[in-house]
Specification:
281 residues, Alpha-Beta Plaits, four-stranded antiparallel β-sheet
Length: 281
């Protein structure tokens, strides 16, 4: 290609997509926009070798480093996508497992120019609602402790809580890693030695619900997450099934998280044949 043709191609090429640096970093899953602004103000972020400033814009051709390490930003797909999945017991929440065990990511549809980010975790023996999104900022808003997003669980216990125990759980009990408490706890039936309870908690420390019951000498024999923030697990979504939220529901989740809706898109989602729309709170 000659110089004239090259200059003409550069002059007529479409402008590369760009966005504010703090938003791009948040979308990459590094933290909230506010945290990214703090990092930028502290001089931790470099763009093309120069210290960035708040409000700087970046595009696909820019080299961005945070604390000396390069960060690869995604610009190909601006749409926020949300997928819900009914995790089974025996699956782990990781992309790669050295032991070759089944992971929740094995069941997710492949993406181009983006990746699924897990919103929180469920341990190996816990089943229920998992949420995945392509937006790092949304994932951070749903997971960060300061947002106090509710998680609701159905808990089957070998034994029974007394009214005094429930009062203590609501007031808070001391665990090995600090105080923990339930926002609500009520009986939901059961037979024989097993009792079911519905509980709501506003944080996601490791095995926290199980440890709260173990504090009173009660063993949790089944733990199912049935709601995370505004999204509830549809009763018809069986274990191992997944479905993608449609535009209307994505917009409602973004509004709930106080984020601007992403560009609308037409989609039929990826519902399994027995699934229905998730319930919104």
């Amino acid at each position: 290609m000659g110089r004239a043709a090259s200059r003409l191609q550069q002059a007529t090429a479409p402008e590369a997509p760009s966005e504010r640096l703090q938003k791009a970093l948040a979308s990459a899953g590094l933290g909230s926009r506010r945290e990214m602004e703090e990092w930028i103000a502290q001089g931790r972020v470099l763009v093309n070798g120069e210290t960035a400033t708040i409000g700087s814009k970046v595009g696909p051709g820019d080299v961005v480093k945070v604390s000396g390490r390069r960060v690869y930003l995604r610009f190909e797909d601006k749409r926020t996508r949300i997928l819900i999945y009914h995790k089974s017991e025996g699956e782990i929440v990781t992309r790669d497992d050295p032991e070759g065990r089944a992971t929740v990511f094995d069941a997710l549809p492949k993406l181009r120019g983006a990746k699924w980010i897990a919103v929180g975790r469920l341990d190996y023996n816990t089943d229920g609602l998992m949420i995945f999104t392509t937006s790092g900022e949304l994932a951070n808003n749903l997971m960060h402790p300061r947002f106090e997003v509710e998680r609701e669980y159905a808990v089957r216990v070998l034994g029974e809580l007394t009214e005094e125990m429930i009062a203590q759980l609501l007031a808070g009990v001391e665990l090995d890693d600090g105080m923990a408490q339930l926002q609500s706890c009520f009986a939901a039936g059961g037979e024989g030695a097993n009792r079911w309870y519905r509980v709501v908690i506003k944080e996601g420390r490791k095995r926290e619900v199980r440890r709260l019951f173990e504090h009173f000498g009660l063993t949790v024999s089944r733990l199912t997450r049935i709601r995370f923030g505004p999204i509830a697990l549809p009763p018809q979504l069986r274990r191992g099934q997944k479905m993608e939220l449609e535009d209307e529901l994505v917009a409602r989740v973004l509004e709930w998280a106080e984020m601007a809706p992403s560009p609308r898109r037409h989609t039929r989602g990826v519902p399994d044949k027995h699934s229905r729309k998730p319930r919104m709170r």
